[in-house]
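User: Structure please.
Assistant: Input sequence and predicted structure:
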Amino acid sequence: MNFFSNFFKKSSSKEEIKKSESKFLPKKKAVIEERFILKFIDNGGKFIYCETIVELQENFNLILDENEWTSEDILIINSDLKKRYNLSNLFSSSLEETKCFVTDCENLIASDGSVLISSNQIHEKKLSEFPESLIIISDTRKLKNSISEGLSEIKSNSESIPTNITTIKNFNKTKEDKNFLSYGTSSKNLYLILLEKGFK
């Protein structure tokens, strides 16, 4: 059984996780998945874990239904994303009048629960130019311990390093993010659909 199945069977909240730690034992450094989830939720993000592509598609459609978004309200500028997750081709490719931007990401950063993106996702536009709501679709291979680890991975896997690298961390309008990579970004209503690596 994979980590996330254990995680969600064992506990459903940050408080329950903390209660399960013994006061007589030294506090263990949480595994990368747990640290990311706790920080991401604490930042105000909405987290959905899926084991299969079918689950991913079902949860994606539930998000659209919950917000009463039609295909015209959804912006997807990465056509590969549609093919990879078998999403509809009827979504908008125009920034004007859309309500939600759907994209993948470069990495998911466990140390602060942020999402690392670049020109591969948003081209040369500012994040503030996109709709207030975002759906990030990713998988567990994208989890990294720190921003520096994420940047190193981008550098080692890219023939040409992407530009416009930034983090999305502020999912709550009441919090202020002072990370230099987040400078100039606005708070977003963010959903993360995370697919377990190795599942199809």
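Residues 37 and 113 are 7 Å apart (CA to CA).
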